[in-house]
Amino acid sequence: MPDNWTFVAAAYTIAALAFGTYWRWLNRKEREINALRGRHDTGRTTAGRDTARRDAAVRDDRSTAVRNDQDPAVRSDRTSRSRQPSMPGHPRPEPGSNPSIQQ
Amino acid sequence: MSTALGWLAAAGLAAGLGMGFGVAPREVTQGNVQRIMYLHVPAVWVAYLAFAAGLVASIVYLARRRPAADRLAHAACEVGTLFLGVNIATGAIWGKPTWGTWWTWDARLTSVAVVFVMFVAYLLLRQAIEDRERAARYAAVLGIVAALNIPLVHFSVYWWRTLHQPPSLLKPGSSTMPPVILAALLVNFAALALLGAYFIARRTRVLAAEEEALA
Predict the structure, then answer these.
(1) B2-214 belongs to which CATH class?
(2) Which of A3, B81, B172, B209 has the most CB atoms around its CB within 10 Å?
């Protein structure tokens, strides 16, 4: 029987390709997960920083409000302030401007 | 640990190639094409071992619901499918010059193809279900059913008339192989078993990292 070396070469080449491809796929998967973890950690840090910044802003607003309450000029204007319309661009319309409520 | 396994597997593969092509002699009847056996037979043994590990891990998962058992089952079945695919491909390449055909629907080839398709379905099932716990549960059941077919593959050559030869080694009684050919086969089996263990260890680690990153 002839030696059929081409068949031997084909069999070993296919096996090498299959194992090599799987090994490379594992490497790629590991790299992707590491990158995802990195992004996740960075996201957490950024989110934490944003939250801290928002908290600080809220604290500042509250302290300003407390200071304004202590100011007599501001305190006397409280009723007029309550009739002020919503901030421009606020998504909720004024009750009087909502036709469904009027009906 | 997996790095050490990887280096051991690489050394084992080099030794296996040396044994298969340098030490083992040319077979008298088939010629050098018989050297495909050093790849074809160990590949299916490693696939059997991987599926057996998958079977045990699936049973443990169903009993205890431990995510680590599910990850091991997933990795073992995936690697087993890879080795079984290599076994089928190299078998077809070996079959052409020796049997005159790439494929025939005899009992051994058909039963091994059924097991291969079942494990491909196992991997697809895992991808198809989004809920991780449900995917693991369904896959464990399918993995057990698929692995229970392996004895059917092994004994098919005894139970039915087949073109495929009966086993030379995994059978009652002593081996009929010449010692040098047997040694080459066992070295290649050890090398592919190390490669399989390396792949399973790395895949399990990747699955754990993936779950951690997505949690």
Answers:
(1) mainly alpha
(2) B81
